[in-house]
Design a protein that fits this description.
Uracil-DNA Glycosylase, subunit E, 12% strand, alpha/beta, 8 helices, 232 residues
Length: 232
C-alpha cells in the first residue's frame, strides 16, 4: 500500500468515526433538534444533523481550524464553513490566495476543491450558543489529534479565533510537542512555532468581525499569504 492510499484509508476511517460519534448527550440532542426544527429560510431543506468531519486536500500543508459547525451552516450542509456568512468570507479569501477552486461554498456537492489546505474544527457538533463546554471540547480532541497525524505533510495551522488557537495548542501538546512558556497568546497574525508546526492566528470570519471591520479582506488574505510563505 502506498503512503497516499494508506493516508486516504485512515482519513476515511476517521470520517466514519466522527460522523458516527454520539459521545456528548447535550450536543447530540441539540444538533438533532435543530435539524428537525430548522429555521424558516431553510425549512424545505434536509439537514445533515450529525458531527461534521474535516475535508480538503489529503496532502495539505495548511490546516484551517475553526471552532465548531454552525447550527444552520455546517450542521445543515455537512461541510465546515459551508452555507453560512463566515464561510462566504473564508472561502472567498482562500480562492483569492490560491487555496480554493471557487470563492463560494453553499453545499457539499457544489464542486469546491481545496488545494494544499484542509478545513476542520476543534468541535465536530454544533453547540448551543456556539459554546462547547470543556468536557465536550476534550471529548473531541482525539479526532483532531488523529487528523494531525494523518495529514503528514502539514506545516502550518491557521487558527480562526481564540478557541481554535487554544484547541490547536492542546492537540499539539497531546502529541508530545513542547508548548512554549509562557503559553503563546492568540491574536490576529500572531505566530508560534510548535515543533514542526507554525501556528498562525486569525480573527474568526464571523459576521460580528467582518461586518464591523474588525476582520477585513486584506487582513485575512495576508494570513493565507503568510501561511503559504511558511509552507513553502
Amino acid at each position: 500500500m502506498t503512503r497516499a492510499s494508506a493516508r486516504g484509508n485512515g482519513l476515511a476511517l476517521l470520517e466514519a468515526d466522527i460522523v458516527g460519534c454520539r459521545a456528548c448527550p447535550r450536543l447530540v440532542e441539540w444538533r438533532e433538534r435543530v435539524a428537525v426544527e430548522r429555521t424558516a429560510r431553510f425549512a424545505d431543506e434536509e439537514y445533515w444533523g450529525k458531527p461534521v468531519p474535516g475535508f480538503g486536500d489529503p496532502a495539505a500543508r495548511v490546516l484551517v481550524l475553526g471552532l465548531a459547525p454552525a447550527a444552520h451552516g455546517a450542521n445543515r450542509t455537512g461541510r465546515n464553513f459551508t452555507g453560512d456568512r463566515s464561510g462566504d468570507f473564508l472561502y472567498a479569501s482562500m480562492f483569492r490566495t490560491g487555496f480554493a477552486s471557487q470563492p463560494t461554498s453553499i453545499a457539499r456537492d457544489d464542486g469546491l476543491e481545496l488545494r494544499d489546505a484542509w478545513v476542520s474544527a476543534v468541535n465536530r457538533c454544533a453547540p448551543p450558543g456556539n459554546k462547547p463546554n470543556p468536557e465536550e471540547r476534550d471529548a473531541c480532541m482525539p479526532f483532531l489529534g488523529r487528523e494531525l497525524a494523518l495529514l503528514s505533510d502539514l506545516r502550518v495551522i491557521v487558527a480562526l479565533g481564540a478557541y481554535a488557537w487554544d484547541g490547536a495548542l492542546r492537540a499539539l501538546g497531546e502529541r508530545g510537542l513542547d508548548i512554549p512558556r509562557p503559553r503563546p497568546r492568540p491574536g490576529h497574525a500572531a505566530e508560534a512555532q510548535i515543533g514542526p508546526f507554525a501556528l498562525i492566528g486569525c480573527f474568526h470570519p464571523s459576521q460580528q468581525n467582518t461586518f464591523t471591520g474588525k476582520l477585513t479582506e486584506p487582513m485575512i488574505d495576508a494570513v493565507f499569504v503568510r501561511a503559504r510563505e511558511i509552507a513553502d
